[in-house]
Each structure stands twice: as C-alpha cells, then as structure tokens.
Amino acid sequence: MDMKTNKKRLHDIEISVLDLAPVLSGKTPADSFRNSLDLAQHVEQWGFKRYWLAEHHNMEGIASSATSVLIGYIAGGTSKIRVGSGGVMLPNHAPLVVAEQFGTLESLYPGRIDLGLGRAPGTDQMTAMALRRHLKGSDSEFPKNVQELLHYFSSKSNRKSYVRAIPGKGLNVPIWLLGSSTYSAQLAALLGLPFAFASHFAPTHIFDALKIYRDRFQPSENLKEPYALACVNVIAADTDEEAKRLATSLYQFFLGVTRGTSKPLQPPVESMDGMWNEFEKEAVRHQVYYTFVGSKKTVKEELQEFLDKTQVDELMVVSHIYDHSARLRSYEILSEIWNEKTED
User: Fold this and answer.
1) What does DSSP say about strands 291-294 and 195-197: parallel, antiparallel, or unpaired?
2) 73 in a structural domain
3) What is the mean pLDDT of residues 22-27?
4) Contacting residues for 282 by C-beta, under 8 A, at least 6 apart
5) pLDDT at 34 over 90
6) Which of 151, 152, 232, 325 is a good FRET partner for 31, with 20 to 30 A between their CA atoms?
7) Would you call 300 helix, strand, or coil by DSSP?
8) pLDDT at residue 5 in the model
9) GO CC terms for this protein (predicted)?
C-alpha cells in the first residue's frame, strides 16, 4: 500500500448525509418528510457536515421529487448544517429557474445551501419527456447549462446582463458536479468545481473518475484545489447480525430497480433466499458494491479501507433502513466512529 494512503483517517475528513426521502411501505410521503427532518436535526447535533436530497421522479419509494422545496423545509428546521441537492437533475430544468430557486434558498438560509448538479433525468425516459417536453440535446447541453448557472450566480459576468437571477446574482452558492462515470469528473476538473461520485449505486468507474478529476483539475475562483466526495451505502447496527437483517430492505429496493419496478421501501426480512434469482442477486450485489453493513467495529474498518483506496475528502452516506429509529441509530453509530480518535 502506498504510504500516502496511511495518512488520512476517517476523523480527518467530513461526513455527510444523502437522503432520498424514502416512502415506507404502509406510510405516506408526509411521513417521509417528517422522518427526513427528524434525521436532519439529529445528524446536525452529531456533527455531520451537510444534508443533501436527491431528485427522482415517478418512483413510489422516493418522495424527493420537488427537491428545492424539501431543501427549504430541512433548512428551515435546522440551524447550521449545510443543506443541498444531491442533486438537481439539470436537464429537467431551465438554468435560470434553478438559479432563482437556489438564490432564494441562499437568501433565506445564508451560508448553508449547496447546489449539486447531475446530468441524468433521475427517472425513466417517458417521465423525462413529461418533465422536459422534449429530450433534444439534453446530454450535450449539460456543460453549457452548468456554465449558464455559474453566470447567473456571478456578480461580475452577470452584472450588465439583461437576464439575471433575482435573487441569485452575486450569491455564494457552491456548485458541485455529480457523476457516476468519468464525464462529470472531466467537466468538474475543467471548471474547477467540487466533484461528488455516486459510488452508492455505480461503483465501476470511481477510481478512473477520481484520477481524472485530480489530474486535470484547474483552479478557479470557486475552488483552488480539487475536492472529491464519494457517496456510499451504510447500514450500521449494534451487532453484525442485526445490520445484515436491516440491509435486506436495501437489497429489496435495488432488486426493484433491477426489475424495473417501483414500490415503497419494504420491511427487512430474515433472508433474501427465494426473493431473487442468481442473476438478480449478482446484479444487485454489483450495484451496491460499496455498501458497508455491520457493527461499529465492522463498519469502521471497512470505511477506513475505502478511504485508504480512494483518499476522498468527504464521505456521504445514504441508508435505506425501513425502521426510522434503526436509521437514526445507524447514523448515530457513524457519528461515534467519527468522534473517536484512531490510533495510527
């Protein structure tokens, strides 16, 4: 192992939360929103850096479709944790509208709002068509739309423009690029923006993306040095056995993704045997390769190994746990890990 990999410990980096506002079986989106706020209030007390919400559409198990509205709800119910999007799927929105929404949020909650941008639709093609009305050039226009957003927030380049984001112009809303491949890594490096990799569902290209981002990074007025975040799944509990049982809700969720079906997050089961075939099992296991399940000791060791390999500057955690109290406990265990001083 490279000596460099021995230097960065878990307590040296920031830890954050990604929330999809999961809709639980037998519950409603309103219940999801209350749970999200409660989780945000707890992780704020436990020292987590930021709380992001992910835009998805037409999925019965995910209630975070109106992402900017939820960000305002969470920011309004907390006091210091950064709140943002992980992310806003930019092809679904006019850049000016996004600038106005996040300019409004930053005006209401100054110094606490992040704007993470993705280039996928966050849904199926038919729903994407309903969102955008047309799909012409959406992918190829992503770099131009990102630069348009940067322009709307700039106090310099947008000073004399006829079209301005009000509120938005001149406000310091950090823009992140999100990716599950190397595409956004290259763009984030070129524009000098922070980069977040979605390794919680797309593990394949993480090392290539991080290398490209770091090697090609060009300092900007937004960021002087590369800053990389990786998102992972964590299911932590007081015992390995309990964590493994809780993790079956995660596996059921991704089994639905594999099958192209959508349903609310299901309660845990004692075993996934009989619920999936071998092909589905392997497909799910691949998608959630960077999933860390177990007791505090187990999760701590595995997350440190992940950090050794990636050397990211921040870890973001998503936890598909059915029981809200168990979900809280999982994040509490993470806070205990981060607050422990590791003997090097």
Assistant:
1) unpaired
2) yes
3) 96
4) none
5) yes
6) 232
7) helix
8) 44
9) cytosol
For 97, the token pair is: 């509208």
Q: Is residue 47 part of a domain?
A: yes
CB neighbours (10 Å) of residue 11? 12
Which pLDDT tens digit goes with each residue over 35-76?
A: 999 999 999 999 999 999 999 888 889 999 999 999 999 999
- At 201, list the tokens: 């569902």
For residue 171, the tally of other CB atoms under 10 A from its CB is 20
Distance from C-alpha of 281 to C-alpha of 315, rounded to nearest angstrom: 26
Count: domains in the chain: 1
- Which residues are 276's β-sheet partners? 273
CATH of the domain at 264: 3.20.20.30
Whether this model's pTM surpasses 0.85: yes
The answer to whether position 16 is within a domain reads yes
Q: Per the structure block, which two tokens stand in for 275?
A: 């619920």
Residue-wise pLDDT for 277-312, tens only, equals 999 999 999 999 999 999 999 999 999 999 999 999
Burial 55-84 (b: 16+ CB within 10 A, else e): bbbebebbbbbebbebbbbbbeebeebbbb
Range of the domain at 238: 3-338
226: in domain: yes
Tell me, what's the pLDDT at 132?
Answer: 60
